[in-house]
Amino acid sequence: MEIKENISLRDLTTLKVGGEARYFCLVKNVKDLSQAREFAESKKLSILILGGGSNILIPDEGFFGLVIKIDFKGIEFVDKDESVRVISGAGENWDSLVEATIQKGFSGLENLSGIPGTVGATPVQNVGAYGVEVKNVINWVETFNLDNGEVKKFYNQDCQFGYRDSFFKTEDGKNLVITKVSYLLERNYQPKLAYKDLAVYFSDSKDPSLGEVRKAVLKIRADKFPDLKKVGTAGSFFKNPIVSQDKFNKLRKKYPDIPGFPVASSDFSSINHKLPTIKLSLAWILDKICGLKGKRDGQVGLFENQPLVLVNFGNATTDEVKGFSNSVKEKVFAQTGIKIDEEVRVI
Ligand code: EPU
Hints:
Elements: E1 4-8, E2 20-27, H1 30-42, E3 47-50, E4 56-57, E5 63-70, E6 75-80, E7 83-89, H2 94-103, H3 121-124, E8 128-129, E9 132-133, E10 138-145, E11 151-155, E12 176-186, H4 196-201, H5 210-224, E13 232-236, E14 242-244, H6 245-254, E15 260-262, E16 276-280, H7 282-289, E17 296-297, E18 300-303, E19 306-312, H8 318-336, E20 345-346
Parallel strand pairs: 2-5, 3-5, 4-20
Antiparallel strand pairs: 1-2, 6-7, 7-12, 8-9, 10-11, 10-12, 13-19, 14-16, 15-16, 17-18, 18-19
Uridine-diphosphate-2(N-acetylglucosaminyl) butyric acid (EPU) binds next to α4, β13, α7 and β19.
């Protein structure tokens, strides 16, 4: 395994901003990862783990440590009665994995078609789209501990999955590198079409096939997201805020059409109106309340078809992205009193 120096990170991210890595390496297996860890330890370097680079904001100054790009490959299918396990290396491209499972006729990942990035990133932020979150299908996650080199499996219930959240984002979980993920898929396919965009798409057709659902999701996404080949973007730049029922009621008095969705994991037997239980649509807020849809300032803007998506139109810097993002945050707070957070990982 080769350790390179002064490698530009800009083109290793889909936002296409950020400086250089002081040291950089590509790791294909646990042995490589152990060596990288020892190198960082010997030089007292901090480590940054990079997957597909589709959900990360790198500073203009770059990263003065060791950037490790995860390149663990391999997809394996294991039969298990009604269900099937697909075990994938963390460095596999996510959408290639989705496509491979659909070609074999296994269901579970079809609604998550077209999401950029690698397999290893999916548990970290509990990737979700079109009514499915990856926590619904994850069986276990294999990790490598950067502190002590230990390899450990985390079963689903130990991953502490939440909305765009997991144990791997916590202080205790941050030193874990995801090396492999096992997903539990079904042979008996039941289309999941409850999400509005899919329900509308299939309003005239009953029981679409797995392939048809994938096609629909790809089409819906293509209409909503900018082309990664043309502009820099990281998908949703902000999280949808989750507010209390009280806060939602207040907002609804002022904006009667504001959409809100109960968070799935809430315990409705003991509703506390002060706890955050209602997920708001930030796209709606940015569009209908703040008038920021398609708003552009220099090389940075919010996408015209989906304001949750921040776009680098050319040669924006990270500071410009941050400045623009802060102005969006301030505007949302001034209009609604809601503090929004980035969904992308800010380094
Ligand atoms: N809307 C507007 N104006 C717009 C666009 C949308 O008012 O210009 C409103 C509509 O009412 C729409 C609602 O916003 O129904 C919700 O929008 P959408 O269904 O497009 O989803 P989203 O909340 O913007 C989330 C995820 C996406 C995921 C989609 C589809 C987050 C932060 N984002 O977006 O995930 O693909 O749902 O399920 O949860 C990502 O995390 O990077 C990501 C792309």
